[in-house]
Specification:
Shape: globular
Helix content: 25-40%
Order of helices and strands: EHHHEHHHEE
Largest sheet: 4 strands, antiparallel
Number of helices: 6
Strand content: 15-25%
Length: 160
């Protein structure tokens, strides 16, 4: 069996907010549970049927569902996995002083996380990170393969 082609690019997303907002699942889920691939037009119809999902900038429950959201939610786009990995690393560096847990702040743990992220991006996958922050905050940083995503290859690119 041959490996699928690498994605054309990766879209990067970052959300920081109150963890109660993050825990509210209604705006994080499109209106229909989809368990198999469907045509791109059907994905667009599903997304359009949920104005709350489309308007939200809170991370969706399923990582590739970011691609259903408007392009305005994209923080950066990279064609090379090493550039996407560097963006992810920079986001963690920016957020880490606010991490609630010393475990998440640990330099060895962060290095392991970044190495795993680089590996995943090199083979065309998505990278997801989420951390509780001091106070009641939560941060999510996600790098999502696009054109095509390996989990949901028929979701159309939000940039087209």
């Amino acid at each position: 069996m041959t490996a699928p082609p690498p994605p054309a690019h990766w879209h990067c997303y970052r959300w920081t907010g109150d963890r109660r907002t993050y825990d509210g699942e209604s705006a994080r889920r499109p209106p229909h549970l989809v368990v198999q691939d469907i045509p791109p037009q059907q994905w667009k119809q599903i997304a359009a049927a949920s104005p709350a999902f489309m308007a939200s900038d809170v991370p969706p429950l399923e990582v590739p569902h970011w691609l259903l959201r408007p392009a305005r939610t994209i923080k950066a786009t990279f064609e090379a996995p090493d550039k996407a990995s560097a963006w992810y690393r920079d986001q963690i560096s920016d957020l880490s002083p606010s991490f609630l847990s010393d475990h998440d702040k640990d330099a060895v743990r962060q290095t392991e996380r970044l190495t795993a992220a680089e590996d995943r991006l090199r083979w065309g996958g998505d990278v997801v990170g989420g951390w509780y922050l001091r106070g009641t905050g939560f941060a999510s940083v996600q790098v999502v393969a696009c054109s095509a995503n390996r989990i949901r290859p028929t979701i159309p690119c939000p940039m087209r």
